[in-house]
Design brief:
Blueprint: H1 25-33, H2 38-47, H3 54-78, H4 89-92, H5 106-121, H6 123-142, H7 148-173, H8 177-192
Helix pairs in contact: 1-6, 2-3, 3-5, 3-7, 5-6, 5-7, 6-7
Length: 193
């Protein structure tokens, strides 16, 4: 596990060179709205707005929920302390002061899982969602709520979960070889009779 204190004078994996000053309000607002996956429910509703596009939103929601659950499960095991930033203006800008384990960032895990599942289902929609997911990850670093490795690890875990959920749901929709053959045979018999 990386050290919990930034490396003295070096550029270690947990060195956060972002300002410690209070971030702009959109950064804290985005971090707050993404709490508990609320942001991704709204994004899914927008994606599902057009008829015939509900599959990408549904896969995104399932993946986001799975990513959040996986993130909380890992947090329960890892128990990593958050950056000692409670007195910094960047951290005080957050309305909620997180006390849970730092690794992984469930904001990043949920964002990545949702985005990967949507991208694999509808690449254009995924490209539109990806900058929002990146901004959520940035917000957790900028507000000093997480160490950089918490966000990177969460995003990597979320990407894997999003891919697995997409694969599982896609496989669930594809009929097996035997059932396809029976349907084709049944269709020909009806047409010929």
């Amino acid at each position: 596990m990386p050290s919990e204190e930034p490396q003295g004078g070096g550029d270690g994996p947990d060195e956060n060179d972002l300002p410690i000053t209070r971030p702009a309000w959109p950064v804290t607002a985005l971090s707050t709205v993404a709490q508990g996956g609320v942001l991704w429910v709204v994004v899914a509703a927008v994606l599902a707005w057009r008829p015939g596009r509900r599959r990408r939103a549904g896969r995104g929601l399932v993946a986001g929920a799975a990513g959040m659950a996986a993130g909380h499960a890992v947090k329960a095991v890892v128990r990593r302390r958050r950056p000692p930033a409670e007195r910094l203006p960047a951290r005080r800008a957050l309305p909620e002061q997180p006390k849970s384990s730092a690794f992984p960032s469930t904001h990043a895990t949920t964002a990545a899982a949702f985005t990967v599942a949507v991208t694999l289902t509808a690449p254009a929609a995924g490209a539109a969602v990806a900058p929002l997911a990146a901004a959520v990850c940035y917000s957790r670093l900028r507000t000093r709520a997480h160490w950089p490795t918490d966000v990177y690890g969460g995003a990597a875990m979320g990407a894997v979960v999003g891919g697995l959920v997409h694969r599982r749901l896609r496989r669930g929709r594809t009929p097996g070889r035997w059932s396809r053959r029976r349907r084709c045979a049944g269709g020909r018999g009806r047409r010929g009779g």
